[in-house]
Amino acid sequence: MVFSLSDILLPLVIFQLLFISFFLYSKETGKRISNILLASFFLAICLNLADTFLLIKQVYFQFPAWALWGSGTLLAGGPLLFFYTQSVIYKDFQFTKRRLTQFMPFLLLFIVSEVSYLAAGREKQIEILHNIISRKIPPAVYIVSSVIYIHFFSYLFASFRLIKRYRAAAVNQYSDSQRATLNWLLSTIIFFFVLIVLS
Predict the structure, then answer these.
(1) What would the pLDDT profile of 83-100 be if each residue is shown by its tens digit?
(2) pLDDT at residue number 172
(3) 151 Cβ partners below 8 Å, 6+ apart?
(4) Residue 142 CA from chain centroid, whole number
(5) Percent of the chain with pLDDT over 90
(6) Which of 58, 104, 126, 161 is surrounded by the most beta carbons within 10 Å?
(7) Quick check: 69 and 143 in contact, CB under 8 A?
(8) Which residues, 6 or more positions from 76, have their beta carbon under 8 angstroms from its beta carbon?
(9) With 0-12 CB in 10 A as exposed, 13-18 as middle and 19+ as buried, what is 83?
(10) How far apart are CA 14 and CA 67, in angstroms?
(11) What is the value of pTM for the model shown?
C-alpha cells in the first residue's frame, strides 16, 4: 500500500487541531473568551480539513449523506481568528450580539448547501461526489469556493494589519508575554495562510 504525503500530513494536522481545540475549551486559566475563540477557530479549520480528507479518500461514498458538511467552515474561521486577535490586543474586548452577524455568510451557506444536498437523494449525492473527485464541477461552484477563500484571506489580512498597527503604536508599552503572544499570533496567521493555500 502506497501512502502519499497528504495521507500522512493531513490526519496529523487534523488530530493536532482537534486536540488543541479540546484543550483550549477546557482550559480555565488565561482569558476565557480568547481561549474559546481560538479553540473554535482551530475546530473550524479541523472540520474543513477532515471533510476534505474523507472526500479525497472516498470514505463518503459509503455514507454520501454525511459528505460536504465542512466545506463552508472557512467562512466561520475567518471571523473567529479576527475576533481572537482583537481579544488578545484589547483588554476590554467582549463578544457582543453585533459580532454574531459576521457569521451570517457561514450559516446561510451551510443551511442552503446542506438542505439542497440532502434533498437530492442518495444516487444524486454519489454522482455529485464522483463529479467532485473527477473535477467535473459546475463553474458556479468554483466561483463560490473562490469567494469563500477570499473571505477567509481577507480576515487573515485584517488580523495581520491589526497586529502590525498595534505593535507600531505600542512598541514600548507591552510586556514580554504580550510581545511573545503577538509574535505567536503572527506565526499562526502565516501558518494557516500557507496551510489553506496548500490544501
Answers:
(1) 999 998 888 888 888 899
(2) 58
(3) 74, 75, 78, 105
(4) 18
(5) 30
(6) 126
(7) no
(8) 40, 44, 103, 106
(9) buried
(10) 17
(11) 0.85
- Residue at grid coordinates 463552508: 72
CA distances, 103 to each of 9, 11, 73, 80, 121 (Å)? 29, 27, 10, 9, 28
In the numeric block, which cell numbers belong to residue 173? 508599552
Give helix 122-133 / helix 32-56 axis angle, nearest 10°.
90
User: CB 85: neighbour CB atoms within 10 A?
Assistant: 28
Residues 28 and 16: their CA atoms lie apart, in Å, by 20
Give dist(CA 183, CA 193) in Å, integer: 15
